[in-house]
Design a protein that fits this description.
Elements: E1 3-7, E2 10-13, E3 18-25, E4 34-39, E5 46-51, E6 57-59, E7 67-72, E8 77-82, E9 91-97, E10 108-113
Parallel strand pairs: 2-10
Antiparallel strand pairs: 1-3, 3-8, 4-5, 4-9, 5-6, 7-8, 9-10
């Protein structure tokens, strides 16, 4: 089973950028579809982006053109480059399989100030 740990969050002004990292352990990582999810205060967790084992990507409409998901199977890692950040992007960001497994990591907090 793959275990995932998120990092890279922080406080940034609107219009700024952050790069999130997801470090994975487990021999099946390279064949898994991996997603980045987020949960804002008082809202349900939502899928932001996902990437297949071959690098095919999908994005939520709210982040298209601003976020880019990528992966490095040799390093067992998935990344989320976030540009042109908005206050509405403020949330805890998680990585997980897609579809998501029941177990979630601690996530990484992203706060965008206006």
């Amino acid at each position: 089973q793959v275990q995932l740990v998120e990092s890279g969050g922080g406080l940034v002004q609107a219009g700024g950028s952050l790069r999130l990292s997801c470090a994975a352990s487990g021999s099946t990582f390279s064949i898994n579809v991996i997603g980045w999810y987020r949960q804002a205060p008082g809202k349900q967790r939502e899928l932001v982006a996902r990437i297949s084992s071959r690098g095919n990507t999908n994005y939520a409409d709210s982040v298209k053109g601003r976020f880019t998901i990528s992966r490095d199977n040799a390093k067992n890692a998935v990344y989320l480059q976030m540009n042109s950040l908005k206050p509405d992007d403020t949330a805890v960001y998680y990585c997980n399989n897609f579809p998501a497994l029941a177990s979630w990591g601690q996530g990484t907090q992203v706060t965008v100030s206006s």
